[in-house]
Write a structure and sequence with these properties.
It is built from two helices and eight strands. The protein is of the alpha/beta class. The protein has a four-stranded mixed sheet, covered by helices on one side. A four-stranded mixed sheet has the order 5-8-7-6. It is globular and about 50 Å long.
Length: about 160
C-alpha cells in the first residue's frame, strides 16, 4: 500500500525511542552535550529509561535494553536528524562536539546533495547511533560526499 492510497493520516512525528547500552552515559550525551532536558527517568533495575525533551515536550525516549552497539547494517533506525535555524548554529554545534571528542562521519559541514542549500554535520552518539545536526539553508557551496545521494544516506 502506498501513502497515496492509504486512508490513514497521522500527525507530525511525536518522538523517537532509542535503545542504549548505558543510560547514564547516554543521558550525559543527550542531556549535557545536545541540551535535551530529562522530563522523566525510570530507575527500576532492569527497566531503566529516560524521557527527554525541550520546554516540557517529549522528543526522545532512551531505553537501557541494548546488549551491543548500534548496527547500521540491520533494519531499523538509519539516523536521527536535529534541525537548527542557521548554518552558523550547525558550525557552533560542530565546534562544541569536536571539543568534547565526539566521533564524526565527515569533516565539517557537508551539503545534503550536490548544490543543495541544506546541509549539516554527521556524527555518532556513544553507542554509535548516527546523528545529524542540519540547517535547511546556508550549505550552498559546501562539499557533498556523494553527488548522486544525500549525505545523510550512506554515512
Amino acid at each position: 500500500m502506498t501513502a497515496t492510497t492509504s486512508t490513514l493520516r497521522t500527525g507530525r512525528l511525536g518522538h523517537i525511542g532509542l535503545n542504549v547500552t548505558d543510560l547514564d552515559r547516554s543521558l550525559a550525551f543527550y542531556g549535557d552535550v545536545l541540551g535535551f532536558e530529562v522530563l522523566h527517568e525510570g530507575k527500576e533495575e532492569g527497566r531503566r529509561h529516560a524521557l527527554l525533551g525541550r520546554e516540557g515536550r517529549l522528543s526522545l525516549a532512551l531505553w537501557q535494553q541494548a546488549d551491543g552497539a548500534y548496527a547500521p547494517a540491520l533494519a531499523g533506525l538509519h539516523h536521527l536528524a536535529l534541525e537548527v535555524g542557521t548554518i552558523d548554529q550547525v558550525r557552533a554545534a560542530e565546534a562544541e562536539l569536536r571539543a568534547r571528542g565526539v566521533d564524526f562521519a565527515y569533516d565539517g559541514v557537508v551539503a545534503h546533495g550536490e548544490g543543495a542549500a541544506s546541509g549539516g554535520i554527521f556524527f555518532h552518539d556513544p553507542d554509535g547511533t548516527r546523528l545529524e545536526i542540519y540547517a535547511p539553508t546556508g550549505a550552498e557551496g559546501a562539499p557533498a560526499p556523494a553527488a548522486a545521494a544525500p549525505a545523510c544516506g550512506f554515512f
